[in-house]
Amino acid sequence: MMIWMRCLNQPLIRAGANGMLEPWFESKGLGDADQVLAYFAVSKLGEPPIDGITDTNPEGLTAAYGKWASAVAGRLRAGGLSCKVLEKDAFQKQMLEKLIWICAFMLVGARHPGATVGVVEKEYRSEVSALIAELAGAAAAEKGIVFEGAMEERLCAYSRAVAHFPTAVKEFKWRNGWFYSLSQKAIAQGKDDPCPLHTAWLKELKIV
Each residue of 75-88: pLDDT tens digit? Predict the structure, then answer.
């Protein structure tokens, strides 16, 4: 769920995989922990990493936040990977975008067995677009933020960059489970489900 990095004699920093870890950090008194949002991946042992560089973000998507962010970015760049340093608010928005990406593409892909991330982007674009919009609206309302425009284009561009990745709904507590908890909270308060499509597809696949 998380990767811990040490930069020479500097403290450990959490490098995010894909998930909503804020509640866990806060429960451990680590709300201001340095973090890295990793938009790179290794397909298999021995292969070079695929950097999060896309046609909409040629500067790369990987980002770091916190006291040691510049040091981590330097190490990644030395290894041939991109990394930008962000302030906390900007980092949170980008973290939520990546959460929306993993939740939307994995769930849509699960509805179409065998579909890779690239197939979802190419053949089921209308489904994933609707889910991205729904999850973005729920996240923005919950966190009181406004996302930058063209989120769908950014997330679909990233999907094209890692098109061969398989899809599956995993680590529910840390990923789709966060959005489902928003739905449960709203319904318990007598409000409309902010993520009705997400909830319906989770039930369709018997995940909840």
Answer: 999 989 999 999 99
